[in-house]
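If you are new to this repository, start here. Below is one unmodified record pulled from the training split, so you can see the exact layout before writing a loader.
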Amino acid sequence: MSLRSPLSQARGLGSAKEGVGHWWVQRLTALALIPLTLWFVVSVARFPLLDHATLVAWIKAPLVAVALVLFFLSMIHHAALGVQVVIEDYVGNEGVKLVSIVLAKFALYAIAAASVFAVLKIAFGA
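And here is the target side for that same chain:
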């Protein structure tokens, strides 16, 4: 049983002053993903056949390539923010937490780099 008051116990354990920025960026990426995801789903759904030649011709269009890059970057960044929050909330060991966050972000941003590279390679001709 502690003899410290609740205020004394809570003092110094408040906000780290980092959560609001993280929260806003996650909301903004979610907002950006709404029209980008709708565009992507509608665009892909309208193809009669999803063969390689059709998709390559579609990706070569400049606006499509830019939209795909924005879609991939927004989606991966949003996912990285969400995975970080889940790890911070549910992993208790600080060392495991740090390693998990670093590995998750590394993997997600590697996927983002590969996605952007693939789109640009197709858009500018392979």
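Two things worth knowing about this chain: The helical segments are 6-10, 19-45, 52-59, 62-90, 94-123. The chain has a mean pLDDT of 89.
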